[in-house]
Amino acid sequence: MSKEGNVAAAARAFEIGGEFLEARPYGSGHINDTYKVFFNEGGVSQCHILQRINHNIFKKPVALMENIQRVTAHIATRVADEPDWQRRVLRLIPARDGQAWHVDAEGNHWRAYYFIQKARSFDAVESTEQAFQAARAFGRFQELLASLPAPRLHDTIPDFHHAPKRFKAFEDAVAADVAGRAILVKHEIDFALARKSITGVLLDANLPERVTHNDTKFNNVMLDDTTGEGICVIDLDTVMPGLAPYDFGDMVRTTTSPAMEDEQDLSKVTMQFPMFEALVRGYLSSAGGFLTPAEKDLLAFSGKLITFELGIRFLTDYLAGDTYFKVHRDGHNLDRCRTQFKLIESIEQQEESMNRLVESLAS
Ligand code: ADP
Ligand code: GN1
Ligand code: MG
To answer: Which of 30, 227, 228, 346 has its CA 20 to 30 A from that of 221?
Structure first.
């Protein structure tokens, strides 16, 4: 079957009324395939989200879907009394066979969500208010899941944020140099090697394990079109046990610079202090009540560490010949690596003031 045919057949496998019209590739994710699908329901065009899970990366899609079912059901019970609650949590559309997902003839796993109307996500931040709202929403997400009943969630990608193991993978990729590219990135390799010592800091800090999102990119929160509120946290594949500062760190990585993650003009990449302040204020407004002093102390550092982790992940993938992240041009992963490293330099220049700010706002 053609790719389009597969998508249409997958869409029809879910409990969606009416006649399938079309599927449009949607969003800018690097891993899964996301589609906005349209159905004619009694003369009205209705849209939904359909996603094919990348099972080369998520090796246990059923365990992943079990996590998502538990997480979305739990959040739904917690927000059920709030106005407009159906826009405050992702809701799975069941498949026609009664499962929460659909497996096609080729073994691909698909899921569908009700579309969150009148809200959108942004690839790059536009205002401090947006940064505040995103951080508040991700902090609330952690707070809502603090009461998730046992058992522990599945690790959908083991050691996902294990920075020392990420660094080892990077060193192995340099040594193997399978694509013959190491010679082109000597500067980036040296930049990374000089910062090896920061990789163990979060793991060595004995922080409490929590349910965390682990992919708190700015574009993984939907902002309400009218009020600007961070109304719904999305992209739940990596929700699993983790450390709270990982989530804050990825907000710093993706929400303090005005530039896109793959910007080629590095002069545009900078850690804007007012955005950082908005993130700290937003995050503490929802998570400040349960974070320990040790977690708060590591908020600014976590921004640097996660940015470093992503920098070496992009560089590793470049060296390996672009096998993990989707790429849309030559050198795409290298461009992404360079924005991360530029952002690290900007964070390093401001790290003391960032720490002082967190200390004053957290006390
Ligand atoms: P990816 O893993 O590809 O990043 P996401 O789950 O983040 O996938 O979805 C991609 C984009 O689709 C998001 O940035 C968001 O704009 C949009 N999106 C995802 N889920 C929904 C939903 N339930 N309603 C409306 N838009 C959504
Ligand atoms: C990937 O799927 P997406 O694009 O939201 C990646 C994240 C990275 C991000 C970088 C499972 O997220 O870890 O931070 O790209 N997801 C996975 O943009 O590896
Ligand atoms: Mg996403």
So the answer is: 346
Q: Which ligand is nearest to the CA of 112?
A: 1
pLDDT band at 291 (very low <50, low <70, confident <90, very high): very high
67, 35 contact by CB (below 8 A): no
Distance CA 203, CA 245 (A): 11
Q: How far apart are CA 107 and CA 337, in angstroms?
A: 33
- Please calculate the CA angle 278-250-348 and round it to the nearest 5 degrees: 75
* Contact present, 148 and 71 (Cβ < 8 Å): yes
Ligand 2 atom showing the smallest separation from residue 28 Cα: 4
Distance CA 67, CA 73 (A): 10
> What element of type H or E holds 138?
helix 128-145
Helical spans, DSSP H, in the chain: 3-12, 61-79, 128-145, 163-176, 186-193, 201-204, 244-255, 273-287, 293-297, 299-319, 332-362
Hey, which of 26, 28, 31 would you mutate to test ligand 2's pocket, going by the most ligand atoms within 8 Å of its Cβ?
31
Give the C-alpha separation, 326 to 52, whole Å: 14
Residues within a 6 A CB radius of ligand 1: 26-27, 29, 31-32, 34, 49, 90, 113, 115-116, 121, 219-220, 234-235
- Cα of 215 to ligand 2 centre, how many Å? 6
Q: Which ligand is nearest to the CA of 31?
A: 2
Q: pLDDT tens digits, residue range 54-87?
A: 999 999 999 999 999 999 999 999 999 999 999 9
pLDDT tens sequence across 212-263: 999 999 999 999 999 999 999 999 999 999 999 999 999 999 999 999 999 9
CA–chain centroid gap for 146, Å, is 19
